[in-house]
Amino acid sequence: MPHTARTLVRTLLLSVCLGPCAASSPAQPVPTVFENARVITAAGPEIERGVLVVHQGRIVAVGPAGSVTIPAGAQRIDAAGRVIMPGLVDTHSHVGGVAGADGSAAIQPSVRVFDSLNPFDPGFKRAVAGGITTINIMPGSGHLMSGQTIYVKPRGIKRPAEGGGGGVSIDALFILDAAGEPMGGMKMANGTNSIREAPFPGTRAKSAAMVREQFVRAQEYRSKIAAAKEAGKPDEAPARDLALEAMVEVLDGKRIVHHHTHRADDIMTVLRLQKEFGFRVVLHHVSEAWKVAPEIAAAGVPSSIIVIDSPGGKLEAVGLSWITGKALEDAGAPIAFHTDDWITDSRLFLRSAAYAVRAGMSREGALRALTIEGARMLDLGDRVGTLEAGKDADFVLLSGDPLSVYTKVEQTWIEGRKVFDRADPDDARYAVGGFGVGSPTRPYMCCADHAVGAAAQ
Amino acid sequence: MTPARTLTFLLSCAAVALPCAAQIAVKGRSVYTMDENAPGSMMIENGVVVITAGKIAAVGPAATTLIPEGYTVIEAAVVTPGLFDARCTVGVSGVLNQRQDQDQLERSGPVQPELRAIDAFNPDDTLVGWMRSLGITMLHTGHAPGELVSGQTSLIKATGRPVDEAVVVETAAVAVTLSPWAQRSGGSSPGTRAKMVAMLREELLKAQDAERKAQSEQQDDAAIVPENKGEKAHSGLRAQVMQRVIRREVPLLVTANRAQDIAAALRIAQEFNIRMILDSGAESYLLAQELRAANVPVFIHPMMARAYGEMENMSTTTPAALLQAGVPVALQGGYESYVPKSRVVLFEAAIAAANGLTFEQALATITSRPADILGVSARVGRLRPGLDADLALFEADPFEYLTRCIGVVIDGRPMLNDTPK
């Protein structure tokens, strides 16, 4: 991009404050400059001694020392010995007190997970303690379709006494699209989690058939609406149907399907349905993607990997391997990671990338998979996921290398505001544990509970 | 041991034709012996471990430790004692998590101490091999938390060999749960915390009485040989095991997380003067002094356990807090009912090392400490002449995420990974 064009874009971005920055408290009357850190932009080579300039919720400039103009009057922070990287993007999490679709049916696209979320849930604090700044919060995987997911930033809820705007609703965490609507996807699953007594499917083939029926219904619903509109007879449009409305958003590509799928044959089933109905999809978990990596790459479908310490725990995860990251990378398929929090802990999200590297994935690919690749899978690649001028000022300050067990997340910033500071004892608690840090109950998984077993603890 | 003595030892082994198949030496840039009594430090730079007939024959600096001719030399950057999972259900709760491979919890009754882990352990389960490939050579495995007295635990080596060959201690502990995890619903007991404690006390009282009776009968009957002491009076397998607890031969391994449940456990330990190990102990940091005073060591929950419910107040700084108070601690892979089916104790210790423990302290929680606490330090837990030749080999700092495990040596037999893992 020519310099003038880039400046223009930057100016526009700075002057037009979109949804997310409106939701956060006004921050940074003067620019903040981080100097002398190793900077991982996730958009190019790592910068040995870098400078990051942020102002009014956005990144103003980033580059090697000497190449970046330090704005006059800026607050300068010496980050020598630290690593700065983009805030982590968790493409699949159950933090916030998730309770989505219930046990009444296998397909419940009308259910919105955000209607169950508690913004005061300590899970959000644990997420920022792990450097996570963007989260796709999903309902559980016990259904074929367990409802609408929500993309949030764990900005923190602040009551007026704490200097906040007074809003104490989960809405304050939403990521809004250009039209001001909250962004989210659609959670789907196949394999064993959703197989159970009627009205749930009893087999894999039945699972696929039920999903296909649903998509056909949605296609018909969309056609009828279009026909009524074309004929200029709005009265003839079908009655509003919340489930099908959400499905139409899926068919239109506005709502991305986030699809739980583990076994290689289940992955292929998702690809088959995707081809038939043309929805946009991200494959989640993909324990056995290493067996069908070329097929996934050929379909042009991205994958979000869960990294688990040992295989099994259920039949569909017996083939889990840490080599999946490398296999998909070698095949050229887009890769992100996710915590699936509470399955793995948000505070240890960096660890997931490290284990993929341990099994052969590239460092660069793994770091991108924690950040920009996940952002793209949420249609947020132009706003978060890299350290580039114009993007949201979402970043983390690490005490050392992101792939070392000894490294601590020291600070987490969202839209130019520090939301976690390990130097603050109250924040530090959320990084290590203690009273009030955990949750009294585990996430509501509805129907996946049968897979969790009788001795669920 | 001097080189000369080492050689003598090795020659004598060969002379009596012991199974000396594994005549190997393991060289490491850093050899962590974990041996507090060894001269110098617990770590030998450029060290070597000489192994003969399944036992460690010598440990020392490569410069002064003779490797006999004909020995196979294996090299690694870091060598540690074989890792020891202080409390898990590996081999008993299988990888599939299906009814037919889950033998960690028998639901037919709340008190079944007669259930032996060795009768359920499947050495072929994928997760046994998985643990071995990550450096773990010793499993303290068996019955899970979830019933008041769920059964026994055993010490079994992760060789993958039949359990009768791999077992080191058949009855290592009796597993007890003092937590709502062991509550039963409807009209079944125990349905409350207080009922749990009452039932356990009844059980121990019964065993105490039976033991008293056995002792007085023994005085009457001089013909009983000492090995059978206490077994004459028992009325079944259950009493037999519980009397061993009363005799302090077998500890109770009590799973408790809330401070109130830990306090209840300590009350019972004192009342019956039994040996006790606290398992999990999410809130144990609140009772560090009491644990120390009661001489109760703790097998702390996995560092990556999920912080909710009974464990909502857990902390990754608990190992450091307890050590600071002088409480012996070991770490565990624990029991999981879902995914991951088994946690890897090496990874759990790594998180402890990043949260307040020194490298040596963290390594001790998965080597020497569990061996001490479970009374098998004459067999495993350190690299010391005379102990079983159980070693773990790594490319670098074993706690680092990116460091891969090269493999293990168990009883002198190298079991290396095809590619480092």
Structural notes for this entry:
- Chain A has helices at 3-15, 19-23, 122-129, 204-230, 242-251, 264-277, 293-299, 324-331, 349-358, 363-369, 372-377, 425-432, 449-452; strands at 32-39, 47-55, 58-64, 75-78, 83-86, 88-93, 132-137, 145-148, 150-152, 186-189, 257-261, 281-285, 303-305, 335-337, 395-398, 409-414, 417-421.
- By secondary structure, chain A is of the alpha/beta class.
- Chain A folds into two domains: 1-85 and 385-426, Urease, subunit C, domain 1 (Roll), CATH 2.30.40; 88-382, Metal-dependent hydrolases (TIM Barrel).
- In chain A, the strands form three sheets. In chain A, strands 1, 2, 3, 4, 5, 15, 16 and 17 form an eight-stranded mixed β-sheet that branches. A six-stranded mixed β-sheet of chain A has the order 8-10-11-12-13-14.
- In chain A, helix 7 links the parallel strand 12 and strand 13 (303-305).
- In chain A, helix 7 (293-299) packs across helix 8 (324-331).
- With 421 residues, chain B is of the alpha/beta class.
- Chain B folds into two domains: 3-81 and 383-416, Urease, subunit C, domain 1 (Roll), CATH 2.30.40.10; 84-373, TIM Barrel, CATH 3.20.20.140.
- In chain B, 27% of the residues lie in helices and 24% in strands.
- Chain B has eleven helices and 15 strands.
- Chain B has helices spanning 3-15, 126-133, 163-166, 193-220, 237-246, 259-272, 288-294, 318-324, 345-353, 359-364, 368-373; strands spanning 24-32, 43-52, 55-61, 72-81, 83-88, 136-142, 149-157, 167-177, 252-256, 276-280, 298-300, 329-331, 391-394, 405-410, 413-416.
- An eight-stranded mixed β-sheet of chain B has the order 5-6-7-8-9-10-11-12.
- In chain B, strand 10, helix 7 (288-294) and strand 11 (298-300) form a beta-alpha-beta unit.
- Chain B is globular, with a radius of gyration of 22 Å.
- The model of chain B is unreliable at 1-21 (pLDDT under 50).
- Classes of the chains: A alpha/beta (457), B alpha/beta (421).
